[in-house]
Amino acid sequence: MRFRPRCDQRANCGVLFFVFLVPSTVVNFLWYASSNVSPNARKPLPSAILWQTSVDAYNMSLLNEVTDFTTLVDKTDFRFLINNRRCDDAQDIFLVIFIHSAPDHFQKRRAIRKTWGQERHLVDDPLRIVFMVGEVQGRDDVQKALERENYIHRDMVQGNFLDTYKNLTYKHVMGLKWVTYFCRQAKYIFKTDDDIFVDIFQLVTYLKGSSGLAPPRGLIMCFLIRNPYVKRSQRSKWRVSFKEYPGKYYPPYCAGWGIIMSPDVVFNLYLQSTQVPYFWVDDVHVSGTLAQRAGVNHVDFTNKLSVTEEEIFEWLQSPKLSRPYLFGHPDAEVDTIYALWNKTYWYYKRTGSRR
Ligand SMILES: *[C@@H]1O[C@H](CO)[C@@H](O)[C@H](O)[C@H]1NC(C)=O
Ligand SMILES: *[C@@H]1O[C@H](CO)[C@@H](O)[C@H](O)[C@H]1NC(C)=O
Ligand SMILES: *[C@@H]1O[C@H](CO)[C@@H](O)[C@H](O)[C@H]1NC(C)=O
Known about the structure:
Elements: H1 10-34, H2 48-51, E1 80-82, E2 93-100, H3 106-114, E3 127-135, H4 140-153, E4 156-162, H5 168-182, E5 186-193, H6 200-211, E6 220-225, E7 253-261, H7 263-273, H8 282-294, E8 298-300, H9 309-317, H10 334-351
Parallel strand pairs: 2-3, 2-5, 3-4, 6-8
Antiparallel strand pairs: 1-4, 5-7, 6-7
Helix pairs in contact: 3-10, 5-7, 5-8, 7-8
This protein binds 2-acetamido-2-deoxy-beta-D-glucopyranose (3 copies).
Residues 161-162, 164, 166-167 line the site of one 2-acetamido-2-deoxy-beta-D-glucopyranose (NAG).
Keywords: Glycosyltransferase, Golgi apparatus, Membrane, Signal-anchor, Transferase, Transmembrane, Transmembrane helix
Organism: Limulus polyphemus (Atlantic horseshoe crab)
InterPro entries: Glyco_trans_31
């Protein structure tokens, strides 16, 4: 497209308008498209390049170069069935978010991609989002649809363990592994679930404000659950037997819908993950047991949030355009996520602020 320096006719003005407006979209698109490049997506193998590290938080020589890539907790035949190296195109990534999802949660992922998970909203502070899923059993149609979805969005990571709730610890550790291997340059790592709303603008502002220019270290920030009893009730889906976990209490651990970590914490949790026997309550295992072993202290952000359903709906229904909550409540319906985003978007658009 040729640039026209003058605008003496309506038609030319139109062209000028086009020239000035479109390129940012095109640039965004190219940037977006390039972030989707995923050479060798199905089977990335460890290589010298994978082992190089420019980030001191990840001391890759502490991992076994031969066996680590195919190890996941106690599983020694691990591999990625789907993988995307979304971070390869950028030197500086501000935030990488890995989202626990399930293979057939197509609508939930769609809602996130269309709302708060749009990476292009944060070009100044590059953001990458990936969805973590396990293997589908006996549902070829679901797997096919998943592959089609991934072909379009290139943001799925699938591991070769069955996608069941007793296998959630594999999923969680796969997230840590993926970051360790494929997104070491990210300054912050955020783990969440696919039924959560996040005010992504506020989150980035908040993180920038809390760490300043210094790289964060030793950070694990979440909605902290202190001195929790181990659930023994026969009726609970989360019932844990004495054989699975003999103690009466768990160590303090994070609610899994929002865990913010610094790179060194991700790496230390990942290092610990092969040292401790598998336990299936993933939040307890990863953000409790492994965190305790790694010697990291939690920062509780409970007082910074309001996450009850009532408060969220009150905010949504109020005719006033007020500052959104940082997170929407867990178990949000897809419609709630769209509505929250709509109001959040308008809030920032109107006020012109990102605080
Ligand atoms: C990484 O670990 C190796 C092996 O323990 C150690 O020799 C080396 O000093 C560590 N490097 C850094 C930068 O901490
Ligand atoms: C977890 O996944 C493995 C495959 O890696 C499978 O054999 C096992 O049955 C799954 N466990 C549960 C409880 O679903
Ligand atoms: C989105 O927000 C605007 C402004 O608050 C409102 O007028 C509109 O009805 C909302 N749309 C939906 C689909 O919620």
